[in-house]
Amino acid sequence: xxxxxxxxxxxxxxxxxxxxxxxxxxxxxxxxxxxxxxxxxxxxxxxxxxxxxxxxxxxxxxxxxxxxxxxxxxxxxxxxxxxxxxxxxxxxxxxxxxxxxxxxxxxxxxxxxxxxxxxxxxxxxxxxxxxxxxxxxxxxxxxxxxxxxxxxxxxxxxxxxxxxxxxxxxxxxxxxxxxxxxxxxxxxxxxxxxxxxxxxxxxxxxxxxxxxxxxxxxxxxxxxxxxxxxxxxxxxxxxxxxxxxxxxxxxxxxxxxxxxxxxxxxxxxxxxxxxxxxxxxxxxxxxxxxxxxxxxxxxxxxxx
Length: 304
Ligand code: RIB
Ligand code: NA
Known about the structure:
Strand order of the largest sheet: 5-4-1-8-9-10-11-12-13
Structural class: alpha/beta
Oligomer: single chain
Mean pLDDT: 93
Number of strands: 13
Bound molecules: alpha-D-ribofuranose, sodium ion
């Protein structure tokens, strides 16, 4: 079976505590709920694409005893690289009563996915429609996967998260869509990004580095979409919802975008972004990351 959306990226075990607010340095506070979930930006994006109906595959590295093997293979058609000498990545997440979060990741086995491992997926990758990469694995591995995809004419989405200040310029050149949030755009451009105007300005700056298109997500303000071929930037607003947990909302957006790029390639990018905003808006209304991502059957048919 053809794997239309391939994610080369991270798997993490999410350790989530809900608390009234985020603690200060040196402070202990009482939280009201704890749970363990499946996360990692790569896996989250892959699962969201799969839940919308994409034939998707995840290329990642986890500990050999990890439950990831059974869980993820049941929801997506996966390609797995195991390792026995490193722990599966873990994310300590605190979610406050406003649905905001603070996250520390320890990437563990994710960092051991290397460019050699990519040789095994060369054939599948060259036949895919969309490749998605992030920065929770080694940047060289992400960049190599993106270059391989571009050489085969596979569309690429790059999510520079978590952001690093000095990103290899090659990443921009191999990104058909470069998609980040406001804080990542700030770090990459050195410009403030809190308003739509500022996002459009930062977007122009990123676009000039060579990407086909730039999308900056702005939470409740929706997103801005800039395309090299149009030299215009468009603000795509989103519906107001009551956010319970915004963790992984960006991943839900990117997974949805990958689905639309693979299956509705003629829909304008702004329309894909508008629909992806709606998918992500569903995810923020319940707790958790992957567990809160909607399935096609629960979404309005106008999105398909
Ligand atoms: O984007 C949200 C994700 O970031 C979480 O699932 C966590 O695993 C971290 O990687
Ligand atoms: Na959620």
